[in-house]
From TrEMBL:
The lineage of its organism: Bacteria, Bacillati, Bacillota, Bacilli, Lactobacillales. This is HTH marR-type domain-containing protein. Residues 30-164 form the HTH marR-type domain. InterPro entries: ArsR-like_HTH, HTH_MarR-typ, Tscrpt_reg_MarR-type_CS, WH-like_DNA-bd_sf, WH_DNA-bd_sf. SMART domains: HTH_MARR (SM00347). It comes from Lentilactobacillus buchneri DSM 20057. One of its GO terms (molecular function) is DNA-binding transcription factor activity. Pfam families: MarR_2.
Length: 182
């Protein structure tokens, strides 16, 4: 993922001026808040990705290790992992090949269906997971250590509200595509 740090971010006044030129009824406060949200997310994500990478992991690989750790017999089918991660089968195949080359997982013929292979967490994968988890948990704690309990609860509440609103963006995109057809 490319990282960009836009230092010339528009002021609320500049946002309003552009909206006026385009005859749009928008809230400069909302647009500016969205830009602040994007910047905060990118900065946190950049630092987290760096932490994860220092363990020779990606966020996806870490999550796969967690899925396997909690699975029965510490194994899952590739299709189950793809579904849980929300990715395509070709994407999961590539991820799992890399993890197998790293020795984090192994694959073997399924005992229930000879046409498929089970993916199992290896001792090396579990060791890496146990080494990384304290740093993962600590990073989360550090991120919110300056928040009061009330602020954390409020932030969680606001994030849930934000997630409910995300579908409105998808609807906006669908409206745009429908408009283009006409």
């Amino acid at each position: 993922m490319s990282y960009y740090n836009f230092v010339d971010r528009p002021s609320k006044q500049r946002i309003q001026e552009m909206a006026d030129q385009l005859h749009l009824a928008v809230s400069p406060d909302a647009v500016h808040l969205f830009l602040d949200f994007q910047l905060a997310y990118r900065e946190v994500e950049k630092n987290y990705e760096s932490l994860v990478a220092s363990f020779d992991l990606s966020e996806s690989r870490f999550i796969i290790l967690m899925f396997l750790y909690y699975a029965d017999d510490k194994q899952l089918l590739p299709s189950e992992i793809a579904h849980k991660l929300g990715v395509t089968k070709p994407t999961i195949s590539k991820l799992l090949r890399g993890m197998e080359q790293q020795g984090l997982v192994s694959s073997h013929q399924s005992s229930t269906d000879k046409r498929v292979r089970d993916i199992q967490l290896t001792p090396a994968g579990e060791k890496l997971l146990r080494t990384f988890l304290p740093y993962n948990y600590r990073s989360s704690s550090l991120l919110f250590e300056d928040f009061t309990d009330e602020e954390k609860q409020q932030f969680a509440h606001l994030l849930r509200k934000l997630l409910k609103s995300k579908d409105k963006i998808q609807q906006l995109e669908e409206d745009y595509h429908e408009h283009r057809k006409n």
